[in-house]
Design a protein that fits this description.
Length: about 150
């Protein structure tokens, strides 16, 4: 086999090539979300154990830490190729859109628990997963649209 034949990309590689930046961005976003989730859940459980407070109070601080961490990781890793005006505007919008994502999660969980009256662990976790999925989709879409805008030509 000649060097020229080995260096030719396969049909599969050529088909995937146009989607590679999107897939890379999506995987990075997912990893950042995973880290944020670990910070929130781990932090909430640690604070609740240390402080013995309510579950709602114990989740506020780790959620704020997770949001700031997610913003920094998304700005300087996931969406590093997109414009930033450096004004702090994108941080405020990021924080607001993240709040809407959290609201989506809470609404899904509340719907399962209060509207459907399903209080079991499986139903709770399914509602949580549905909310996490819908909230994550909303965040990714809205961050790309309003926060981390495409680089200027």
């Amino acid at each position: 086999m000649s060097t020229l034949q080995r260096s030719r990309p396969t049909k599969m590689a050529m088909a995937v090539r146009p989607y590679r930046p999107f897939l890379s961005e999506l995987l990075s976003f997912g990893f950042v979300g995973f880290v944020g989730t670990v910070i929130t859940i781990g932090g909430a459980n640690l604070l609740r154990a240390w402080l013995g407070g309510s579950p709602v109070t114990s989740v506020v601080i780790p959620t704020l830490v997770s949001t700031v961490t997610s913003y920094l990781a998304n700005r300087y890793w996931t969406f590093r190729h997109r414009d930033s005006d450096g004004s702090g505007r994108e941080f405020v919008i990021f924080f607001a859109l993240n709040g809407i994502g959290v609201l989506i999660q809470v609404l899904c969980t509340g719907f399962v628990y209060y509207s459907l009256n399903l209080h079991g662990g499986i139903a709770y976790n399914l509602g949580l997963l549905a909310g996490l999925g819908l909230g994550s989709w909303f965040r990714y879409w809205s961050y790309r649209k309003w926060v981390f805008t495409p680089a200027a030509a």
